């Protein structure tokens, strides 16, 4: 189709080339029929919600009552309400802390540390460490959160037993720290695996020559390893940021409590829209979340394109 | 005489190096323990006659599994999870394979752009960011509290990744097979069924397993869209188990947790052994 007018001989060449490509004789129409159902489903449940959020965010839609039957257009009222509500800013701030400490710092550094410490060992220790970390990432979120509720239990939790801090209610006294550590536990596997493969791709000759000139472990890390895996670090950081920003799992541990101290953005939207019934306001906050996602995802695309070109 | 300061510096560096190593090893051991503790409880508590919240060597028994088998809610929820997983899998594999095949064999202008766009979209419109419009759409469609709603939403979210992976797979199938099938007079549907599908079987199997794993662990979508307790999958029931029932029945919950986790753990480790990092790498979200 596209090449048919490019050259004088194009009309003769193009159909043949097309046929050579379309070996099953599918034809454009049938191909369209093959693609359509998937695209329709994606359109309704992925593309449409994104657009619908914009409209919904400008109505006073509620779960019950008069506004449920006939919602009215309220323009930017929801956005004004959200942006002037201290609890929204509080939630955004909590999300920032959560993403920074559990994702960017925690998962990245511990993931790298684990990859680094098992890089030269083989056999069961390596398998055991990687297996444990991977298992934490694989088991369903509901189970993972329950395991942490058990571990941190006030009366007879294992952590209190080990630390000799009987009676400490971690989830009430240190709720944010608790979900940060919980999320590190759940998500570190990705960084560990990514850095493992990155480290194995660093040319050994460079490390050898660094050792020859007497570079210490720290210097090797800074001058040889990090420059080599810079691209991986960036990719890892962006993906982790996106995923941590969008996770709902901390809700299973603290349900946003106590007193909203762990009400990160995803939990805040849920609480506002579904139990709170304010769908319009919830949608307005959703749109803010979608826009932040868009920024992170576009940054990721730029980075990965740049890396592929190299 | 002049050599002493140099040696001293070298000795200091060695000591410091040694201490740094010990500190690093110590930190990593603590981290390793922290990773192990919850998992050890998960594996041991179900076999303990009287499981407690603290970690202890079990008083071995299989009674808990027998008791779980008698609990109608627990078993039903596992069945519900399977139903949701298989339902989503069928939609995703059939629609994904058709779309990926057509995209692989027919030149659509800007095809790669469309694919990347879809993939980007699926990472932006996540379950959490889109929960309000999704809830709204499903309510409008009258699919609230039904499996159809949950399955459609899950399938819509998963499909872009599936098409992306399967198209890669279809691209690698040599076209000569289809050419020769065509020479013998096979039509496109026949070719798809008898030539392409069998060759693409590893890719389709991978997608099927991956989809089931995704749905198996998903909490948010069924949590929002399903209201009746008897429809809820294990991921949601697990959560209500210990919040609504005040006193937690640890024998039941711990056994249920293990039974619910075991399938995905087994699948992941088997597949990981066979396919390596690519599988669990960018994919699980």
Automatic annotation (TrEMBL), chain A:
<dbReference type="Pfam" id="PF00528">
    <property type="entry name" value="BPD_transp_1"/>
</dbReference>
<feature type="transmembrane region" description="Helical">
    <location>
        <begin position="33"/>
        <end position="55"/>
    </location>
</feature>
<feature type="domain" description="ABC transmembrane type-1">
    <location>
        <begin position="88"/>
        <end position="300"/>
    </location>
</feature>
<keyword id="KW-1003">Cell membrane</keyword>
<feature type="transmembrane region" description="Helical">
    <location>
        <begin position="179"/>
        <end position="202"/>
    </location>
</feature>
<keyword id="KW-0762">Sugar transport</keyword>
<protein>
    <submittedName>
        <fullName>Multiple sugar transport system permease protein</fullName>
    </submittedName>
</protein>
<dbReference type="GO" id="GO:0005886">
    <property type="term" value="C:plasma membrane"/>
</dbReference>
<keyword id="KW-0472">Membrane</keyword>
<feature type="transmembrane region" description="Helical">
    <location>
        <begin position="128"/>
        <end position="151"/>
    </location>
</feature>
<feature type="transmembrane region" description="Helical">
    <location>
        <begin position="279"/>
        <end position="301"/>
    </location>
</feature>
<feature type="transmembrane region" description="Helical">
    <location>
        <begin position="233"/>
        <end position="253"/>
    </location>
</feature>
<comment type="similarity">
    <text>Belongs to the binding-protein-dependent transport system permease family.</text>
</comment>
<dbReference type="InterPro" id="IPR000515">
    <property type="entry name" value="MetI-like"/>
</dbReference>
<feature type="transmembrane region" description="Helical">
    <location>
        <begin position="92"/>
        <end position="116"/>
    </location>
</feature>
<keyword id="KW-0813">Transport</keyword>
<keyword id="KW-1133">Transmembrane helix</keyword>
<dbReference type="InterPro" id="IPR035906">
    <property type="entry name" value="MetI-like_sf"/>
</dbReference>
<dbReference type="GO" id="GO:0055085">
    <property type="term" value="P:transmembrane transport"/>
</dbReference>
<keyword id="KW-0812">Transmembrane</keyword>
From TrEMBL, chain B:
<protein>
    <submittedName>
        <fullName>Multiple sugar transport system permease protein</fullName>
    </submittedName>
</protein>
<dbReference type="GO" id="GO:0055085">
    <property type="term" value="P:transmembrane transport"/>
</dbReference>
<keyword id="KW-0813">Transport</keyword>
<feature type="transmembrane region" description="Helical">
    <location>
        <begin position="82"/>
        <end position="102"/>
    </location>
</feature>
<keyword id="KW-1133">Transmembrane helix</keyword>
<keyword id="KW-0762">Sugar transport</keyword>
<feature type="transmembrane region" description="Helical">
    <location>
        <begin position="114"/>
        <end position="138"/>
    </location>
</feature>
<feature type="domain" description="ABC transmembrane type-1">
    <location>
        <begin position="78"/>
        <end position="271"/>
    </location>
</feature>
<dbReference type="InterPro" id="IPR000515">
    <property type="entry name" value="MetI-like"/>
</dbReference>
<feature type="transmembrane region" description="Helical">
    <location>
        <begin position="144"/>
        <end position="166"/>
    </location>
</feature>
<keyword id="KW-0812">Transmembrane</keyword>
<dbReference type="InterPro" id="IPR035906">
    <property type="entry name" value="MetI-like_sf"/>
</dbReference>
<dbReference type="Pfam" id="PF00528">
    <property type="entry name" value="BPD_transp_1"/>
</dbReference>
<feature type="transmembrane region" description="Helical">
    <location>
        <begin position="203"/>
        <end position="225"/>
    </location>
</feature>
<feature type="transmembrane region" description="Helical">
    <location>
        <begin position="252"/>
        <end position="271"/>
    </location>
</feature>
<dbReference type="GO" id="GO:0005886">
    <property type="term" value="C:plasma membrane"/>
</dbReference>
<dbReference type="InterPro" id="IPR050901">
    <property type="entry name" value="BP-dep_ABC_trans_perm"/>
</dbReference>
<comment type="similarity">
    <text>Belongs to the binding-protein-dependent transport system permease family.</text>
</comment>
<feature type="transmembrane region" description="Helical">
    <location>
        <begin position="18"/>
        <end position="44"/>
    </location>
</feature>
<keyword id="KW-1003">Cell membrane</keyword>
<keyword id="KW-0472">Membrane</keyword>
């Amino acid at each position: 189709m596209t090449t048919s007018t490019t050259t004088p001989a194009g009309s003769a060449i193009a159909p043949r080339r097309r046929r050579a490509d379309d070996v099953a004789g599918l034809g454009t129409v049938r191909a369209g029929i093959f693609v359509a159902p998937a695209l329709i489903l994606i359109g309704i449940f992925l593309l449409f919600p994104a657009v619908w959020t914009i409209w919904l965010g400008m109505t006073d839609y509620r779960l019950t009552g008069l506004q449920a039957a006939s919602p009215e257009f309220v323009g930017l009222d929801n956005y004004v309400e959200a942006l002037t509500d201290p609890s929204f800013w509080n939630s955004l701030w909590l999300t920032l802390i959560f993403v920074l400490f559990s994702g960017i710092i925690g998962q990245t550094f511990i993931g790298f540390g684990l990859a680094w410490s098992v890089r030269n060992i083989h056999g069961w220790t390596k398998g055991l460490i990687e297996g444990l970390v991977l298992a934490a990432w694989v088991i369903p979120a509901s189970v993972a959160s329950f395991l942490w509720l058990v571990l941190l239990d006030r009366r007879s939790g294992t952590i209190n037993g080990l630390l000799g801090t009987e009676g400490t209610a971690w989830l009430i006294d240190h709720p944010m720290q608790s979900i940060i550590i919980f999320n590190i536990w759940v998500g570190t596997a990705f960084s560990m695996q990514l850095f493992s493969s990155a480290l194995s791709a660093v040319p050994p000759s460079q490390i050898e020559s660094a050792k020859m000139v007497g570079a210490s472990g720290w210097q090797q890390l800074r001058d040889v390893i990090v420059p080599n895996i810079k691209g991986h670090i960036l990719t890892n950081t962006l993906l982790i940021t996106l995923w941590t920003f969008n996770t709902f799992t901390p809700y299973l541990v603290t349900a946003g409590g106590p007193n909203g101290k762990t009400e990160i953005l995803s939990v805040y939207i849920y609480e506002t829209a579904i139990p709170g019934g304010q769908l319009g306001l919830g949608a307005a906050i959703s749109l803010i979340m979608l826009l932040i996602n868009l920024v992170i995802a576009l940054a990721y695309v730029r980075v990965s394109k740049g890396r592929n070109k190299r | 005489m002049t050599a002493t300061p140099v040696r001293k510096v070298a000795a200091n560096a060695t000591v410091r190096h040694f201490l740094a190593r010990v500190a690093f090893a110590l930190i990593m051991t603590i981290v390793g323990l922290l990773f192990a503790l919850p998992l050890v409880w998960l594996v041991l508590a179900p076999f303990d006659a009287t499981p407690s919240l603290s970690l202890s060597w079990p008083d071995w028994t299989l009674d808990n599994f027998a008791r779980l088998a008698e609990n109608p809610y627990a078993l039903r929820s596992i069945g519900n999870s399977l139903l949701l997983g298989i339902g989503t899998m069928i939609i995703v594999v059939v629609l994904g394979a058709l779309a990926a095949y057509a995209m692989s064999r027919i030149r659509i202008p800007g095809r790669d752009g469309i694919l990347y766009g879809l993939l980007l979209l699926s990472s932006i419109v996540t379950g959490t960011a889109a929960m309000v419009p999704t809830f709204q759409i499903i309510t409008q469609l009258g699919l609230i509290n039904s499996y159809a709603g949950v399955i459609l939403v899950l399938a819509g979210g998963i499909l872009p990744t599936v098409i992306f992976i399967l198209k890669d797979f279809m691209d690698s199938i040599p076209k000569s097979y289809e050419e020769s099938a065509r020479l013998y007079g096979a039509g496109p549907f026949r070719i798809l069924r008898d030539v392409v599908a069998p060759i693409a079987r590893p890719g389709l199997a991978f997608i099927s397993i991956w989809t089931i794993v995704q749905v198996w662990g998903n909490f948010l979508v069924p949590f929002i869209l399903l209201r009746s307790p008897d429809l809820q999958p294990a991921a949601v029931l697990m959560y209500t188990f210990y919040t609504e029932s005040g006193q937690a029945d640890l024998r039941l919950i711990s056994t249920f947790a293990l039974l619910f986790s075991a399938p995905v753990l087994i699948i992941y480790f088997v597949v990981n052994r066979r396919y390596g990092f690519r599988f669990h790498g960018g994919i699980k979200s």
